[in-house]
């Protein structure tokens, strides 16, 4: 999906013109995947643009950097202020925000200690990543990274090669998204979204032990489900659990809450089903500020 360029990018503490935010070809993160990232969204509310769960995203960025032993020059408070500054400067009412910290130019080789950290925040207008129509999922031949080799709690750049290969395989075969399994064959997640099933009114999603990222949108959905009185379980799922489910949906910052129509050509009974629709409506109310119980999730610009 093409990027709609904005006027400026926050680059190591300064707002620079979009096309001037450049790095050297020998940047460490470019060669070795030594970077961490976050995707955040700004939504239009009655009180103006608001970043959704900004503090949670930035805390995860800091935690990811710490797990990779990647020095982060700015505090989460400084990055929060920079995010608001950037969105204001670009004049966005709604947009996607990418926070990105990576080892820059300074040394080559696997030794990470001599390369400085570069920090970037970019914002651009980006519609929902997967659209709103029910998705066709295909189980990928690529397995999710083993949690003992790459920590799933770290949202790092290098492991996304795994996701890119799975997504390419699925779309080349005519599907919308890839369903990825863990090394033991249990369900992990999609290429960039967490996955949920509904069976008998119970909402289930795989745990981090399956290699799934502990998603902030996933956490949002779980909280909203509890608000609605829906029973939730974070537990292992088999691929056949998705085939037998009453409803399946995926969620992520870029995608939102999106129903699944079929898994490996097995049609779901309803897409979207009742629980999926209720949660999608609750999510829209939360991000727009209409649900006053969760106004604390919003950072006004």
UniProtKB/TrEMBL annotation:
Answer yes or no on keyword Transmembrane helix: no
The protein's superkingdom reads Bacteria
Which InterPro entries would you find in this protein's record? Aminotrans_IV, Aminotransferase-like, B_amino_transI, BCAT-like_C, BCAT-like_N, Class-IV_PLP-Dep_Aminotrnsfr
Enzyme class label: transferase
Q: Enumerate the UniProt keywords alphabetically.
A: Amino-acid biosynthesis, Aminotransferase, Branched-chain amino acid biosynthesis, Pyridoxal phosphate, Transferase
| Cofactors | pyridoxal 5'-phosphate
Q: Pfam families annotated for this entry?
A: Aminotran_4 (PF01063)
Enzyme Commission numbers on file? 2.6.1.42
Give the reaction(s) catalysed. L-leucine + 2-oxoglutarate = 4-methyl-2-oxopentanoate + L-glutamate; L-valine + 2-oxoglutarate = 3-methyl-2-oxobutanoate + L-glutamate; L-isoleucine + 2-oxoglutarate = (S)-3-methyl-2-oxopentanoate + L-glutamate
UniProt keyword annotation of Transferase present: yes
Tell me its family: Belongs to the class-IV pyridoxal-phosphate-dependent aminotransferase family.
Q: What is the documented function of this protein?
A: Acts on leucine, isoleucine and valine.
What is the name attached to this protein's record? Answer: Branched-chain-amino-acid aminotransferase
Provide the species name: Kitasatospora paranensis
